[in-house]
Amino acid sequence: MASSSSVNLEDVPSESLMTELLRRMKCATKPEKRLILIGPPGSGKGTQSPMIKDEYCLCHLATGDMLRAAVAAKTPLGVKAKEAMDKGELVSDELVVGIIDEAMKKPSCQKGFILDGFPRTVGQAQMLDEMLEKQGVKIDKVLDFAIDDSILEERITGRWIHPASGRSYHTKFAPPKVPGVDDVTGEPLIQRKDDTAAVLKSRLDAFHKQTEPVIDYYWKKGIVAKLHAAKSPKEVTEEVQKDRTKSCQIDGQSSREEGGKEMWLEVGWEERCR
Ligand code: AP5
After folding, report:
1. Which portions of the sequence form the region Disordered (predicted)?
2. Which of 125, 130, 166, 228 is the most exposed place for a label (fewest CB within 10 A)?
3. 90 CB within 6 A, ligand 1
């Protein structure tokens, strides 16, 4: 009898098998990469992640999505996380570090990962470093989605999501083909409970007080690339993808804390820059 974790491949359509086989062949030549996306709510981390994931064959680990799934399934973890999430506060470091540690072991993370929404406190960043050190690997680059708070309310309150896939839409900036309906499955879209102007205030407060120090933590390691996240989604994607030559010279230079004047880094995390 097949074990509960195995899949009966005879039931998988040939086209799906071939597509997955081709994807794996393409991915076999890709180097390993470990990325962190940091930015305030609505800065576009979730919007850019699928593109980065596909291009570099990484798994996308979004702590917010994982926690929402746990809340929906009413697991012990979800029950503990719900109250903080509804108020726009952070859940405890121990809870999120536990789910990330487990998630990183998935086969889809073999080539590395995108951490979206984690780490969000310096404590989480330190625990992540310890976790990675045990595996003999480290973070290659931190993408800082820099944006002014004033732009975020419109983005957050206009967002609609397809819970099953995590696909995100916006009534003005990225409308679905049919209002309220997912383009791919035709299923209804929902609004997140914390996507209100009032809860956004607490989420931004948590970002400035608890998460901005994480950016400084990584600046000191010289691995932060700052993006102009207020640009259009296409332009932000281009920034992520564009030629990285300049960053090769900038990597490792002064941090914001150490008095380096505010500079916009060209994004750079190609192997040839390392
Ligand atoms: P989480 O789910 O991580 O939410 P968040 O960080 O607040 O981020 P968002 O998902 O709101 O924003 P995003 O940057 O992904 O924006 P998106 O691309 O969708 O966390 C939720 C909660 O979980 C937290 O408050 C906390 O309680 C808990 N939690 C999670 N991780 C935790 C951790 N590590 N520790 C403790 N607690 C944790 O874009 C937003 C909208 O704008 C979309 O509609 C999109 O279409 C649109 N848009 C995107 N880019 C652009 C653009 N360039 N121009 C115009 N519109 C755009």
Report:
1. 235-261
2. 130
3. yes
